[in-house]
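Most newcomers find our protein records easier to grasp once they have seen one. Read left to right, the backbone structure tokens trace the chain's path through space. Nothing more is needed to start thinking about how sequence determines fold. An example says more than a description, so a record of this kind follows:
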Amino acid sequence: MEMSLHNGEERRKAMPDWLFVLWAGGTALLSYSLVYALRKPFTAAEFEGMQVAGMDYKIAVSIIQLLGYVTAKLLGIKYISELKPEGRLKFIVGSAALSEAALLAFGLLPMPYNIVALFFNGLSLGCMWGVIFSFLEGRRTTDILASIMGVSMALSSGVAKSLGLYALHDLHVSEFWMPALIGALAFPLLCFMGWMMTRFPKPTAEDIASRSERVTLDGRQRLALFRRFMPVLVLLFGANLLLTVQRDVKEDFIVCIIDVSTISSWAFAQIDSVATLVLLAIFALLSTTYNHLKVLCMLLMLSIAGMATLAVVAANYEQFHLPVTIWLFLQSLCLDMAYLSFQTIFFERFIACFKIRGNVGFFIITIDFVGYMGTLALLVFKELHASHVDWTVFYNGMSVFVGVACCLAFVGSLIYMVNASLRFRKDPDAFSLEDKTEVPVEEKKTNDNCLMAKAI
């Protein structure tokens, strides 16, 4: 075992950082893009005029898939925090196989019973982000690696919708079989990418010294971590709930919010590609800064700017008369600026800043669970209490509320970060997750004697 670790470290030292970034970052980006290809193509379909149990069919499909996704996130809070490296590839292959089987069942089963298949599609893919990210964390180059992987969300969303529209309009595939067709292309590639990630060298001693060692967290440690940083985590989890809801509504119902017949099938891919390049450039610049607190503050300020822009554009939607392509670009850039910060760099730097013994997977899977619960609640509310409200009006009204609320949460988080950093410098032990309970003198002597006896 020691020889294997030694060889892995030697391989990493022999490989230039730029080459490792291209290899690892590119593999992670493609891997999560393929996850999107298994999960999101159905959003390109409108299922116009279809209903199930008096509910709009597309909303019902989205709710069922989200139920599976949220269930996976809940289970993942424990599973991802404790997942050992040797189990990652099995998880990726098994999850990809189950998701494609669910898409095949969606095409095979008659309507409306086929919607149940998408529960298993969501269930199988809910933990994939955390598993893929675990290959990248705890390295000196994690910022740029996470940024490359993170922008796959912005890029892949548009590509998945464009592929879906192409299959529907140009290949004339039915709305029920289109997701399975795209998933069949993605499945073998994702399995291969999973194997490729197992070939990544392990973090070196230099990586560990720079970012702190990443370890699994049991239930007691997860609770202690949340309690230690509860004020800022409550603010950030709340803001991420709103961000996830806003982003999911945009991703799943954009064909209802705007008239897609006025733009080409590939417009989503083109717009999201430009937004992706802008975000990647920003995150790459931040990765050159080694002061963890400075990066945390800059990410929060960029998120504040993005959310403020989102609110202003929504509040003045009628007055601005923005072209559809410009409006779509601003939506993607502003939302993903904040959302991807917390899915990639933020908690990686947060762990390093306060020398937390843990892993990023715990934070990401938790904010995802909270966020998708919010999406689920909103979809149910929209269908039951606001089905008469036009999607464009509904989306813009929500944008104003989300933009303002997130700005306030991020300002509060910024103040906390600065104050907590000052306290950490004075007393690092104040942020330790270890039990500080005083041990009675007599008990301490007994423990010491036992240790001495064992040593002898």
